[in-house]
Structure formats: C-alpha cells, structure tokens
Design goal:
Helix content: over 70%
Number of strands: 0
Keywords: Membrane, Transmembrane, Transmembrane helix
Distance between the termini: 81 Å
Low-confidence stretches: none
Mean pLDDT: 76
Radius of gyration: 24 Å
Strand content: under 5%
Shape: rod-shaped
Order of helices and strands: H
Largest sheet: none
Length: about 55
C-alpha cells in the first residue's frame, strides 16, 4: 500500500506545480503584451502630438 501511495502523491505535487508554472508564464506573456501595446500606444500618441504640433 505504501508504494502506490507515493507516486500518487508525486503526481499530485506535479499537478499542482504545472498550473502554477503555466499561470506564471501566462502572467509574463500578459505583462509583455501590455508593455508592447503601451509602447505602441505611446508611439502613436507621440506621432499624433507631433502632427498636431507641426500643423
């Protein structure tokens, strides 16, 4: 009984660790996309301001 209980406990630990890593990766992707989108938005805003100012 002791041998089968060990692998199941290990699988449980892996099952808990895997979603955590996926969640962290998802947050990293989310932050990276936010930074990229924000930089693009600021670039567009600066371009619009330059057009307005130069006009």
């Amino acid at each position: 009984m002791a041998a089968p209980s060990q692998p199941s406990r290990q699988d449980g630990m892996e099952g808990m660790a895997r979603p955590e890593a996926m969640r962290i990766k998802g947050w990293m992707d989310f932050i990276i996309t936010l930074v990229v989108v924000n930089s693009n938005c600021t670039f567009l805003l600066v371009a619009l301001l330059n057009k307005i100012v130069t006009r």
